[in-house]
Every structure is written in C-alpha cells, then in structure tokens.
C-alpha cells in the first residue's frame, strides 16, 4: 500500500486479473454488495478442499451448503452461546495457569506460541464437540502435531518459485492430503460416535456445536447438515478456530509485555471491575479498556491477511470500472495500516479505540475478522477467549518479554508468530480496593447497555417500599397495541405502580386525546407502542396524526413533562422496524419533554422481547426514581412466587349453576365475541388446496360476512381461533382438572389486570377457558420461569429450573418451551387455575390476508390458510392456533373474526389502466387472488404480471384459477418458481424476477406498481434486491444506488409490501 497506494491492479497465478484494496470506502462497496462481489474461488482449490472440505470458511457463496451451515451455526456464536461456553474457557485458562505456575516456579520462560496453541485447541475441542484433547495437560496431541507438520510443509511450499510450485504440485497435493488423513479419520470417528449416541437418546441435551449441527434443521430449507459436512465444519474449526486465536493471543501478550503503561491500565480496570472475585460473564462485558487493547493488537497484527471476492458481473468500484471475473483482494493488513485513517500506524496505542477518538472513523478501517455475511462466524468466541486470557493473566502475573525472544512471522494460513517468550512473575495482593462504582474510564467507553447491566446488579440489593414514594405520585401509562402485547406490558406497569403506592391512568394513545389534561401533575408519561406494517396500531392512529400535524399542541401538552417510550417490534420488518415508537420518542423530545432514559429503548419480538422489556423497565424505574428525588433507590418489581398475585377469583360452580351455564354457553360466546369487536361468521366452504401427494396442508376457507361488515381487496381478516384440544387436555392435566369442570370467574380487585378475552363474571368450563381465553403455546417468559422456579418444592427440580433460567435463550427461547410444557415436566411446581390465567397472556387473534374481492363476492370473505403443524426443537408437537382451528371448521360452523383495514397502501391503483407486478410465493399469493378478481370485475385494462413460488406441482395452490386468469387476459404473464422441482437447483421468485429484468424495467417505466406479499425475513429482502438491481442497471447507475431507487418508489407508494414474520 505504501508503494502502490490504496488500490492497485495485479495478476494472480495463473492468469486472473485482481485489484488489491487498502481503502475503507472501497472495501465497504465490496462487502456491502454480496450479490456482485462473491466468494467463489475455493471450489477450485484442491489444497483447501483436500484439507478442510466445505466448511463455513471454505465453502463458496454459490454452494447451497454454505447458507445451510451458516444459518444452523449462527445461534451457536450468539451472545447466549458465549454464555454457555464461558465456563469452558475459564476451565482451560485455569489449566494453562497450572502449567505456567510450574514454569515460573523453576524460572523457565514461556513459549508463548506453543502455550496459546494448546489453550485455543483445548477450547475448540470442548466447545465444538465436547472432546477434551488435554493438550494443556500433556503438552501436545497427535491432531495438533499433524497441523504443525502441515504448516511447516505449507511454509516450505510458499518459499518455492512459481516454476518450482508448478513442477511439484501433484506431489505436494498428495503429501498434503496424506498428512491430514489421520485427522480426517479422527473427526469422522467423533461424528459417527455422536450420531450413534443421539440415535440411542444419549447426549441429546448436549450444548456443544456438534450436537447442534447434527440435530438442527436449517430454518430456511428445513434440511439438516449431512455428516460429511459436519466433519468439514469440525476440521475447519480445529484448524482456523484455534490457529487464528492463538496468533491473536501471542501478539497481544507480546505487545503488552513491552508496554508497561498499558499493562498498568489493564490491571487497574480488572481490579476495579473484578476485584478479588472470580471473573463472571457479566463482568467480562464491562472490561472496556481491555477491549480497546485487544482491538489495537488485532489492528496491528490481524491474523488473516486478506479476503478475496470475485466480481459476478461488470461493475464499478468507486470511479474504477471492474470487469466480470476480476478478483478483489481486500488487504486487512493494508486497511489497518492506512495512514489516512491511522496516524503513526505502527504505534501500539489502545486509546485510539476510546469512544471519543473512534467516533466518526470509518468502521471498515480495521476489520481483522472481516465483516458482512462472510465475516468470521467465530469472532465472538475469539474475542471472549482473548478477554478472559488478558484479564486473568494480568490479574495473576507481571509480564515481560524474555531475552530469548527473536520474533518472526510466517503465513502458512494465518499469520504465525515464532520465537516469542515471556517472563512471568506472580503478583502480590492487589493494591486497589475492589469497587463496583464506575471509573471515568469505564464511563468513557461504556454504553447504555452497560448502564442497564450495572443497574441490574443494584436492583437485587436495594428495594423501595411504599413509604419512600412521594405521596400522590401518579403515572400516565399509554399504549398502542393491535396484538395485545403492548397493552399487556402497560397493564403490568400499572399493577406495579399500584404495588409501589402510586396511582396510574391507563389508556390507549387514541383515548388519551380526549383526556390530555391527565398529564397535568403526573410524575411521568409512559408510552408503550408497536408498529403495524409501518403504520400505527389501530388505537394509536389519531395520536400519531396529532404528532405529525399539530406540533404546537404537542408542545403544549408535553413540554417539561418526564416521559419514556418503549418500542415493541420485530426486526424481520427491516424497513419499518420501530418506526412508530421511534417517531413518538423523537417528537416528544422535540417538544421539550424530559426523557427518563438516556436513549430510546425497544424490544425485538424476533429474539428476546421479554428480556428487552425487563431491561427497559429497570432503566425507566431508575429514571423515575431520580426524577422524583429518590436517587439511589430502585423501584424493584417483585420476582418469583411472592410477586404472583392472581388477577382473578375462580370458584367452582354448584350443580344447578353448572347446568344453567351449560345451557348458556352459546350466549356467553356471542357476548364475548361482541365485546372484542368480533362477529360470528358462518363457514361456507373449506377445501384443501394441496394435492394428495403433498406433505403440507393449505386450506381455502370462505366465511359469510355478518350484518354491515365490508372489506376491500388488500384488507386482513382477524380470526380468533381456539387452542387445539390436545394442547387443552395437557393443560387441564397439569392443573389436575377435568375438561368438564365449571368455574365462575371474576376480577380479584379493581386494580387487577384482567384480559378482555375472559368474560367478566362468566361461568365457563375448563375446556372453554383453556381453549378460547389464553395462549397455551407461547414461549415461556423469564418472569414466568422465575415464578415456576420459586414454586418448585423438589430441590432437584428447583436446581434444574435455575439452570434453565441461566441458559434461557437456549433452553427456552431457542427450544420454544411453553409454560404448560415445563409444568408438565416438573411436577413439584403447582399453580392454580386463577394463577395460570394471570400468568398466561390472552389469546390473540391471528391475521390473514383476504384472498377474495368484494366486487366478485360481496357477501363473504375468503382466506388462504397454511396449516402449521410440526415438532418444536424440544420435541413438543406444535399446532398453529388459528390455522388448525380454521382447517377443522366444517361448513355451517361459526368463526369469530373481524375485518382489519391494514391502513397501508396495499391497495390496487385507483386507475385500472396502471400496470401491476405481483410477487407472492406460497400463501403470499392470497391477496393477489383478491386483486385479480377485483381487476376482472372492474374491467381493468392495465397489464398484470404474477410471480408465484412453490416447491413443486403438488403444492401449486390455486393453479386452475390462476391459469384461468391468464387465459381470460386478466394476467398477462405468470412466472412460477419451483424450489424443489428441478434436481440440484432451487429456483425462487427473485431469480425469475431477474430473468424478466427487461420486461420489469419496461413496466416500471410505464408507471407499474410492485406488490410483495409473504416472508419478511428472507423472501422480501431478496425480492427488493432483485428489483433494486434491475432499476440501477436500467438507469446505468452503480448497483449500490439501487436501494435508493426502491426507496423512491416506496415514497411514491409504488413499491408496497404486506409481509409477515417467519420462524
């Protein structure tokens, strides 16, 4: 770079054009455009494939196995995965210290490269597949020795001239593969043994990566990794996973041993945060200066030297024209030593990474693990190993570089340091007092999450009683909620406020508009709100309109008022994620409201919404404490059984009452339906759309509209289903009740939070309560788990539940465990019906895109229902509530439902001559069936093209109808993507869209509207990318500008999505 600049051309052997990039801006273009720049060269490397096969590091982008492996392995390297592996890393550190103590006691130097190799090798063995190599105890392992031999052989190869390497290529490959053969057989034996154990039900609960790979299905394709690829993954982990981290550790300690000032700062932070106590995962995250040191070490000596991606098409890279097939070599070393971004780039200076100095620096200026979709999957594990080693080593030893050291480096695969030795000296007792308070340094590098974690410790130690809350403290709690989650959260806060001696005004955001004077004299306004397809919830639309149109009135209401906003959303809706709550927060801030938390906080329903809510709740109560002059006090919600106050009084019915209730069940249901805005519609048709050969089920259900009910094509139908009878029976068994037992239900008190689904004062059977009133299959929350743990009377079960709570994301979220499932497993945990109704959320309606047109069938509405039925990761049979309910309805039976105006732009253009492009794979075709009937009835003349997708002919739903539309000219073209029909090739709608790029561009230039319906996580983003590419190429612009062109169409209301969460 210093000789040729930040980008230059070269030729790779034998004759491949390449550009070498050392510029962060150009690097960003390569990494952020994976459809253009792809990793496709490994399949041509016999050296790589002969050694580690097709692992996540060495499989190419165009090989399907890479995507499957990446999606399956991703959870293993999440934050929750790191929590599971943390204790294994600590155990390996302790082993290493035993060896170091022995050497220190005899005044021997530490061979740093060898020590860190054995450490990282043992970590990978235990984390990867529960195998203890004991390399730290024995000093080596045959597998590790084979890797050393291969590295030496590879080094010798690199020293050869080009002509020598050509002449010796065949013998090199033969010897290279022979060196690795014992290791391949070792790994194959490990995989085979684990498979045999799993088939016998042994080690099925193991948390290592091997069990994950052998038992988990890819969430996108439903396929598992074949054993031979599992072998390749382990070969990759054992080579790359240990080698790169051992290099990073060796260089880290080499640098630290030569910079006493940095070592002192590290020691001060470790003693302040950890003290004399054992290192914990939570404290590890607070070692912010240690992270700065690691980042700087990785910048100076990135273990991987470069990454390569090849251009899949002609493109632009900055101002440079790049031809298809050109290789881009992003020099990680060059990026990290670019003097434009790193003044004095060879100086070791961890302070570069302090927030105030790192702010504004291009994030691609140092990417030692690379980034993007081909970034290093094991980055988190490597960083955790480095943090643990750094903190615990400095806590235990003084470090100095030994005089034997003569550092040198080779690059057999990763950067490999040699001849580096340390002198260690055990430290005396700490000079600093252990303290939990933050230092200025910690504050400088901390963030809002660190503050929340710090608060979480305090709240376990301090509590607030009613007497400490100022007299007559009142909260205004507002919610915007379609599905009930935000309303439930708001109710929980209101109940907690009552328990603290406060009062609260609880209402929807729209209801608040008639009562804005409640803000006067309140302690705070608390808003909990969701986003619905980018629009406000139904009961928040008027409030949002006020914020948009009347800023003066907003300022009049909220100026100087303490407030906080919590957003509920699902990150699968990338474009509209948290848009409404974020807008509320921004507007109230602009109106000079006083935010109780430092930043806008939110929760993600696609991961751990419950955890996010609890973290926000703590931050909010702490902010309110400060606002009320109660600094240092924590308004701590009750945990466990002590905090479970039933919201209902449930009493058995007498014999006569029971008989009377049985006669009035129909009346009770009708009253309940009316209270919830539902109408009872009669089923007119219910037919299976899949062929007899299909292993799936999709139903077309037609329902008669009641009274004055109306709808438009593009609306949704909300269906209030019922829990399947199998699930209801299990819940009744857990409670020790018969399905026929009858109970009278009423609210426990005026303050009690009760669900509108449960009819107040009704007499209902257990079957009816459990079938119609509560969610029985929702993943259990942490708060629910804490209560069950406290209720466990068996010590063994209590310990097991505590372990489940400590590994919540893996044991509960990932396994999708339900409260009923856990109660059925742990019999010493007892709850009453009243408590169960308090613990479980109300049964929510499910929303379906309407698949009919009022112009064709004004008196009834139809929906297209994909029936959900399958095993959860924990082995529980999961039955979709509404889908199984609708599929089981017979003609003449009633369904509780209501029409839901989406309040979006998902409507046909007003003019019938406007062309439309419809993209709807699977049940995503439902609204387009309605659109096409609408266009036919209105005699629209605009061109219509449909892209539909399915697996094969067996699940080509509505085939005859869709082909009929084409025959009658309603559809000009219908393109069908079969993902399983062609052997070895999966075709999805985005592929067909790109194939029709010329036609699509003509339609868009003629003013066409694009409608996309279906999966939000995978399909919708891929379709968007396809259209972005078409538009960019059509206008002769760089592909990177295609996204902005789609944004323009969205603003013009010509690119419209109706998508839902998957998985």
Automatic annotation (TrEMBL):
Primary enzyme class: oxidoreductase
EC number: 1.6.2.4
Transmembrane segment boundaries: none
Residue sites binding heme per the record: 376
PROSITE patterns: CYTOCHROME_P450, FAD_FR, FLAVODOXIN_LIKE
Flavodoxin-like domain: residues covered: 475-621
Known cofactor(s): heme; FMN; FAD
Isomerase is among the record's keywords: no
One MF annotation (Gene Ontology) recorded for this entry: heme binding
Domain FAD-binding FR-type: from-to ranges: 676-909
GO cellular component: cytosol
Record's keyword terms, sorted: FAD, Flavoprotein, FMN, Heme, Iron, Metal-binding, Monooxygenase, NADP, Oxidoreductase, Transport
Lineage top rank: taxon: Eukaryota
Annotated family: In the N-terminal section; belongs to the cytochrome P450 family.
Name this protein carries in UniProt: NADPH--hemoprotein reductase
Organism name: Nannochloropsis gaditana
